[in-house]
Write a structure and sequence with these properties.
Bound molecules: ligand C2E, calcium ion
Order of helices and strands: HEEEHHEHHEHHEHEHHEHEEH
Oligomer: single chain
Number of helices: 12
Helix content: 40-55%
Mean pLDDT: 91
Largest sheet: 8 strands, mixed, barrel
Distance between the termini: 67 Å
Strand content: 15-25%
Length: 279
């Protein structure tokens, strides 16, 4: 057993070294990726159930790596967070998403509100809301067509800069939503304190709907609570017809997930819009 332990430790340090080398390499490459515009934005439609139409999309970053191909955010967002590059990365995504939303707004086939994920580090920047205002003006996009996705932990940060950015964003007319709702905190006080308009039910709850003796009480409760506070509800991670039917029957406003579409490049999204508006 002793020998085994030794081997394990050796194996561990070896793995760890390989891991941190890889990470360091990725960090340096990510810095370059930002300069060389290797970060691209994919769009995943949200289906508005009452109208059966796509009215909005979530912007999700991908890294078009010259050697490794398309890299998913799970592999590099945490590196960007830890190195501080997330502020520049987020700015790049915001600019691309607003430019795209502006194109759909001005050239069709129809207006689509675009939602962009924020890092708390962006909200901690003094003047972040002013940057957003400048971007909107620069691409002539009405603020109501931009939505920003925040997480519960960001809304619970007791930072005056974060709070004043959030208030200024709302004054601009940008929509704010709470991402991964239900996974983080038990306090819901922030829902009254901040100008939130949408809750996104985390896909872990939606996945539960697939289980044999599923407990659908949580989703029902979230929808009821959201509506009583006049908030919209989006369900994430909808993969099966059965989940869609349940969400429809229980008054969920919008659904997002592989059942509707995976996140796709902007041109494919435009084609999807054209074909669905012909129907
Ligand atoms: P998220 O904000 O919760 O985004 C939803 C994730 O769920 C996306 O993963 C999406 O592709 C995936 N998804 C959508 N529908 C389904 C489904 O039906 N089933 C399953 N299993 N998954 C589904 P993705 O694109 O890999 O992004 C992962 C996370 O990376 C995002 O989670 C978000 O936290 C972060 N992220 C992505 N883009 C950005 C960005 O521009 N800025 C920041 N700060 N974070 C980002
Ligand atoms: Ca999100
Ligand atoms: Ca989410
Ligand atoms: Ca998530």
């Amino acid at each position: 057993a002793k020998q085994l332990g030794g081997n394990n430790a050796q194996f561990f340090t070896h793995e760890l070294r390989a891991y941190s080398l890889d990470r360091l390499q990725l960090e340096n490459q990510l810095r370059k990726a930002l300069e060389d515009d290797q970060l691209v934005v994919f769009y995943q439609p949200k289906l508005h159930l009452a109208s059966d139409r796509i009215r909005s999309a979530e912007a999700l970053v991908r890294w078009q790596h010259p050697q490794r191909g398309l890299i998913m955010p799970g592999e590099f967002i945490s590196i960007a967070e830890e190195s501080g590059m997330i502020v520049r990365l987020g700015d790049s995504v915001l600019r691309q998403a607003c430019a795209q939303a502006s194109q759909w707004y001005q050239q069709g086939p129809q207006a689509v509100a675009v939602s962009v994920n924020l890092s708390v580090q962006q909200l901690r920047q003094q003047g972040f809301a002013d940057d957003v205002a400048r971007i909107l003006r620069g691409c002539k996009l009405p603020a109501r067509l931009l939505e920003l996705e925040l997480t519960e932990s960001m809304l619970l940060e007791h930072s005056p800069t974060v709070s004043s950015n959030i208030e200024a964003l709302q004054e601009l007319g940008v929509t704010l939503s709470v991402d991964d709702f239900g996974t983080g905190y038990s306090s819901l006080a922030y829902l009254k304190r901040f100008p939130i308009s949408t809750l996104k039910i985390d896909r872990a709850f939606v996945a539960e709907l697939d289980e044999e003796h599923c407990d659908d009480a949580i989703i029902r409760a979230i929808i009821a609570m959201a509506h009583s506070l006049s908030l919209n509800v989006v369900a994430e991670g909808v993969e099966h017809e059965r989940q869609l039917e349940f969400l429809k029957a229980n008054g969920c406003d919008e659904v997002q997930g592989y059942l509707i579409s995976r996140p796709i490049p902007a041109d494919e999204f435009t084609a999807l819009l054209s074909s669905s508006s012909d129907m």
